[in-house]
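User: Could you go from structure to sequence for me? I need the amino acid at each position, not a summary. Structure tokens:
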């Protein structure tokens, strides 16, 4: 059976879908809306170093090819970071809109909807409702979701903490094993994982085996929550709100499904979530805010919150490693600007007598990550642990975050 991509990933159809059916599960291109400004080509090429949007030929030839409906984007090399959707001024490139699927779930009395939202969402959604950039609207999001009909709202900060513990422990194990593969890279950014699989598969042993926070929470929603709340698993729909278009792609991975049912049924970007709320007449400015539903799965540490920006994951893991090895909390961690041209920040932590210091590097933008990957593969990297975020500045500038005022809003 073919999937109807306009309708999203219906849980039933997931069972029969083949991996290739999801080739456009995150990003859409409508060539008829393209005005050939090539902002997408610029961001794809210069920031991400990919050029998957480039089509050979002169501007006139490209325009003619587009009019004939020839594809010029989203080749097999695309990692679905969605940076092109942020800069496209006409909406020719946009994240696959699944607001209608979310509304179907919310209005179906036979479905129990469980939402999670990422650290960066609370700092970016406010802009869609006229708040200054960076205002934390966490409690307002919970109330807005409840008003929209959500049955349960959980915090991805909780699963980000789980990821920190897992990733920190994995790093420690690798550091203590002289045969282990080092340096270790973070695994929470799905566009980075797509990049490695597509462009540098030989780097896979260097990637942490830990799931992303979205995938960890999705797994808990489909396994632990049904037992805890006594709700049949088949009735639960797990919905994430993410700053990220590549998370749509991640949620549809067969490897992250159990018995062919995905742990995360649906991913809405921040822009889609704003559209859903506006469609229901819910204005964030008029809400007081309320607490999350389940206290246990809605607690998150300060370490989890900083997942939303570059160096956040690395800092969180460094705190964990330091605590486990020394029994002491780190009073302050100060990353410094790196002199390495492709590393944004770096940190060296003294782990005590007889132990080598831990060197951590922070990289963002895939053009930089490409260079660092080659350095690691040639055995020349000075780092033990490297954080990679595909989007410039991390998830707060993700492909699913609000566009500049005045740009195209679907
Ligand atoms: Fe998604 Fe964040 Fe990675 Fe961007 S940096 S692709 S928003 S996980």
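Assistant: Here is the amino acid at each position, in order:
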């Amino acid at each position: 059976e073919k999937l109807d991509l306009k309708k999203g990933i219906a849980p039933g159809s997931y069972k029969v879908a083949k991996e290739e059916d999801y080739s456009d599960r995150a990003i859409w291109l409508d060539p008829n809306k393209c005005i050939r400004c090539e902002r997408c080509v610029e961001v794809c090429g210069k920031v991400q170093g990919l050029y998957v949007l480039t089509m050979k030929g002169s501007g006139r030839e490209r325009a003619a090819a587009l009019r004939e409906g020839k594809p010029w984007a989203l080749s097999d090399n695309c990692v679905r970071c969605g940076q092109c959707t942020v800069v496209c001024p006409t909406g020719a490139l946009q994240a696959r809109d699944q607001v209608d699927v979310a509304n179907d779930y919310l209005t179906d009395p036979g479905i129990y909807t469980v939402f999670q939202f990422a650290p960066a969402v609370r700092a970016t959604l406010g802009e869609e409702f006229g708040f200054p950039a960076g205002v934390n609207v966490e409690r307002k999001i919970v109330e807005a979701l409840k008003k929209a009909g959500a049955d349960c709202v959980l915090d991805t900060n909780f699963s980000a903490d789980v990821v920190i513990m897992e990733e920190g422990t994995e790093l420690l194990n690798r550091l203590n094993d002289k045969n282990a593969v080092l340096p270790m890279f973070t695994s929470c950014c799905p566009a980075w994982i797509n990049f490695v699989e597509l462009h540098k598969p030989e780097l896979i042993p260097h990637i942490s085996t830990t799931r992303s926070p979205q995938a960890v929470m999705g797994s808990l929603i489909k396994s632990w929550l049904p037992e805890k709340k006594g709700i049949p698993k088949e009735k639960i729909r797990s919905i994430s709100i993410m700053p990220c278009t590549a998370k749509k792609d991640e949620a549809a991975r067969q490897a992250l499904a159990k018995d062919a049912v995905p742990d995360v049924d649906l991913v809405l970007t921040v822009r889609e979530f704003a559209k859903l709320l506006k469609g229901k007449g819910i204005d964030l400015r008029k809400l007081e805010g309320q607490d999350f539903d389940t206290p246990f799965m809605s607690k998150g540490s300060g370490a989890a919150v900083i997942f939303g920006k570059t160096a956040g994951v690395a800092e969180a893991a460094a705190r964990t490693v330091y605590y486990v090895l020394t029994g002491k909390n780190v009073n302050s961690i100060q990353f410094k600007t790196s002199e390495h041209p492709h590393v944004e920040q770096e940190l060296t932590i003294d782990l005590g007598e007889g132990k080598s210091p831990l060197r951590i590097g922070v990289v963002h933008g895939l053009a930089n990550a490409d260079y660092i990957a080659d350095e690691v593969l040639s055995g020349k990297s000075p780092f033990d642990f490297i954080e990679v975020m595909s989007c410039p500045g991390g998830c707060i500038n993700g492909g699913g975050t609000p566009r500049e005022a005045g740009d195209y809003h679907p």
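One structural detail worth keeping in mind: The chain is about 35% helix and 15% strand.
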